[in-house]
Amino acid sequence: MKVIAIGKKLVPVEQVAFVEPFDPSVSPEFKPEKDYKGGIVMLNGDIVLTEQTPQEFAAEHELHLFTEDSVAVNRAIVFRVETFEPTESFKPAKPYKTRLKWRGLTGGEQSKLLLTEAETVIAEVLGVKEGLAKAAKRPARELWLILGDAA
Cα 32 vs. chain centroid, distance in angstroms? Predict the structure, then answer.
């Protein structure tokens, strides 16, 4: 098991779901002493702040970076990929296209919305050409993505 030190916290890389940019303007009352640039979202839903950008964290710890979102995902996690469309009750400000889902440590479902197209998510993570994603004859609402053996 690979463990990384982030400040005083020791974090097993296997428990990192993804890393996203940290935006301090979302919580103006939060005044950290350090210049945090990323939030590491753990399988249990906890968030650990880091001074690394998602790009830097991805490069150092071999996560896959979706450049359109600046989100790095852990290839060892089993994700499900769904297309996303806003509903009457949930209309996010950003034009999200994909929902990435996974099971947390307690079995509960967690998710992250992405701007990146679902087909691109699958093709990039699996290292497959666009043809694979377009090969499906019927539109798929949900696709399973197992990243553990992807390289």
Answer: 24
Task: Report d(CA 79, CA 64) in Å as an integer.
Answer: 13
How many helices (H) does the chain have, and how many strands (E)?
Answer: 3, 11
Between CA 151 and CA 133 the distance in angstroms is 17
Segment 31-56 shows an average pLDDT of 92
CA 93 to chain centre: 19
Tens digit of pLDDT for each residue in 68-118?
999 999 988 888 899 999 999 999 999 999 999 998 888 889 999 999 999
**Quick one: what percent of the chain has pLDDT higher than 70?**
83
Sequence length of the chain is: 151
Structure tokens at 47: 């968030």
pTM, to two decimals: 0.78
